[in-house]
TrEMBL record:
<dbReference type="InterPro" id="IPR003777">
    <property type="entry name" value="XdhC_CoxI"/>
</dbReference>
<dbReference type="InterPro" id="IPR052698">
    <property type="entry name" value="MoCofactor_Util/Proc"/>
</dbReference>
<feature type="domain" description="XdhC- CoxI">
    <location>
        <begin position="17"/>
        <end position="84"/>
    </location>
</feature>
<dbReference type="Pfam" id="PF02625">
    <property type="entry name" value="XdhC_CoxI"/>
</dbReference>
<protein>
    <submittedName>
        <fullName>Xanthine/CO dehydrogenase XdhC/CoxF family maturation factor</fullName>
    </submittedName>
</protein>
C-alpha cells in the first residue's frame, strides 16, 4: 500500500481514480464522540490495489478501514464500521486515546 502525503481533496482523488478505471471505495466519518481526531464528513478513499488518500482518524484506524474497504470493493456491499474504547477492537486498532468513531464505507460506481 502507498500513502500520498500531499493535502489533496480525497473526493477529487476518488473521482480521478474512478475516471482512470480503478475500483474505488469511499470511507466517510458519520459520527464521532469524545476525542476522535477527525470531524464528521472526513474522507478516506481507497482503490482496489490498496492505495489511499485522506484520513478518517489521523492514523488510529486507517489500516482496519482500508482492509474493510477492500472487502467492500470486492463484494459491492457497503459497511458501517464502529471503533472506540468500549469496543473490543479499540486496543488492536489504536483508538486507545478515547472517543468513538463511526465510518460508512461504500464502493464508488
Amino acid at each position: 500500500m502507498t500513502m500520498e502525503t500531499t493535502a489533496r481533496d480525497p473526493l477529487a482523488i476518488a473521482e480521478s481514480w474512478h475516471g482512470e478505471g480503478r475500483t474505488v471505495a469511499i470511507a466517510t466519518v458519520i459520527e464521532t464522540w469524545g476525542s476522535a481526531p477527525r470531524p464528521v464528513g472526513s474522507h478516506l478513499v481507497i482503490d482496489g490495489e490498496g492505495n489511499f488518500e485522506g484520513s478518517v482518524s489521523g492514523g488510529c484506524v486507517e489500516g482496519a478501514v482500508i482492509t474493510e474497504a477492500l472487502d467492500v470493493i470486492d463484494s459491492g456491499q457497503s459497511k458501517m464500521l464502529e471503533f472506540g474504547v468500549a469496543d473490543e477492537t479499540a486496543w488492536r486498532v489504536g483508538l486507545s486515546c478515547g472517543g468513538r468513531i463511526r465510518v460508512h464505507v461504500e464502493r464508488l460506481g
